């Protein structure tokens, strides 16, 4: 077990990639705070599975797009499970819209969840680490779109590109405290966020044609790297993004 005795907070972990990371962390020995925004039933189901593994779990509702709720999330998780060792900033969403039609509400929603949520949840955790002279691990779930353009998704690209630099910058600023900060950039992973593409035969075929490994990824593909980055095996790794994309990012064919 690679995370034995550790405590982790994973944002947006009632479904999709976050859920898989929560379950995998528990199997690796971690106690887990499961954050959700909408469905308490789904979050409780994840927590129930974790408890069945013999680990502790707490469910905390919070909209990470609001700074007061980021603080509340970290306070409640810390109170219930004790000091957090690992934070995974996974909560994310996208809104498809041509650039000229993006509204301020779209911008605030996408940047709020993906970027502001990552920023202020990390701040709430790191403030506690620095106060208690503790070290810890931050893993940000970015996207291949921190590098790759994605027409119709200017807000998402702006948010994930900023997460790439936030990851590098915090690695530099916090490294002296023994805190590591890394990111994972998933490619096409079958979850609710891209069901419109993965379940449409034409769109799916177009996507597969751009993936050298010729399959859509699964949340488990992402969870394995998250365990590695949160474990002692990655003690000397900080400031980098790890692509989990079946080779999609650097694929080009004419
Ligand atoms: N699936 C992919 O292909 C893919 C690719 C690249 C990056 N990602 C990233 O992976 C992460 C997880 O996405 P997913 O694919 O599992 O999609 P998903 O839609 O299944 O999960 C997103 C999770 O974030 C939560 N969430 C959304 N807004 C929130 C908020 N304001 N506060 C708290 N929680 C909130 C949702 O409730 C959900 O649990 C996201 O950051 C996403 O951008 C996914």
What does this protein look like?
The chain is of the alpha/beta class. It has a single domain, classed as NAD(P)-binding Rossmann-like Domain (Rossmann fold, 3-Layer(aba) Sandwich), CATH 3.40.50.720. 44% of the residues lie in helices and 14% in strands. The chain has helices at 16-27, 40-52, 67-81, 104-131, 154-174, 195-198, 201-208, 219-230; strands at 7-10, 31-36, 57-61, 86-89, 137-141, 180-186, 241-244. The protein has a seven-stranded parallel sheet with strand order 3-2-1-4-5-6-7, with helices on both faces. Helix 5 links the parallel strand 5 and strand 6 (180-186). The N and C termini lie far apart (45 Å). The mean pLDDT is 97. Bound molecules: nicotinamide-adenine-dinucleotide. Nicotinamide-adenine-dinucleotide binds next to helix 1 and strand 2.
Keywords:
SDR_fam, alpha/beta, Sc_DH/Rdtase_CS, 254 residues, 7 strands, Rossmann fold, 8 helices, Glucose 1-dehydrogenase, seven-stranded parallel β-sheet, 14% strand, binds nicotinamide-adenine-dinucleotide
How do the strands and helices of this protein lay out in sequence?
Blueprint: E1 7-10, H1 16-27, E2 31-36, H2 40-52, E3 57-61, H3 67-81, E4 86-89, H4 104-131, E5 137-141, H5 154-174, E6 180-186, H6 195-198, H7 201-208, H8 219-230, E7 241-244
Parallel strand pairs: 1-2, 1-4, 2-3, 4-5, 5-6, 6-7
Helix pairs in contact: 1-2, 1-8, 3-4, 4-5
The protein binds nicotinamide-adenine-dinucleotide (NAD).
Nicotinamide-adenine-dinucleotide (NAD) binds next to α1 and β2.
């Amino acid at each position: 077990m690679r995370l034995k005795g550790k405590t982790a907070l994973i944002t947006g972990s009632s479904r999709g990639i976050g859920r898989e990371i929560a379950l995998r962390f528990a199997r690796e020995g971690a106690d887990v705070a499961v954050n959700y925004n909408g469905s308490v039933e789904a979050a409780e189901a994840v927590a129930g599975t974790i408890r069945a593994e013999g680990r502790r779990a707490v469910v905390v509702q919070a909209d990470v797009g609001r700074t007061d709720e980021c603080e509340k999330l970290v306070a409640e998780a810390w109170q219930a499970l004790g000091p957090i060792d690992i934070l995974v900033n996974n909560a994310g969403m996208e809104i498809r819209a041509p650039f000229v039609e993006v509204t301020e509400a779209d911008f605030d929603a996408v940047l709020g969840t993906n970027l502001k949520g990552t920023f202020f949840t990390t701040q709430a955790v790191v403030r506690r680490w620095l106060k208690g002279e503790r070290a810890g691990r931050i893993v940000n779930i970015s996207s291949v779109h921190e590098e790759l353009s994605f027409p119709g998704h200017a807000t998402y690209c702006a948010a994930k590109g900023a997460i790439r630099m936030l990851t590098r910058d915090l690695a530099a600023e916090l490294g002296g405290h023994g805190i590591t900060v890394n990111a994972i950039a998933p490619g096409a992973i079958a979850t609710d966020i891209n069901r419109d593409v993965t379940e449409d035969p034409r769109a799916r075929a177009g996507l597969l044609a751009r993936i050298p490994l010729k399959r859509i990824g699964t949340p488990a593909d992402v969870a394995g790297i998250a365990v590695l980055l949160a474990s002692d095996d990655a003690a000397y790794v900080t400031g980098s993004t790890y692509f989990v994309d079946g080779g999609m990012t650097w694929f080009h064919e004419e």
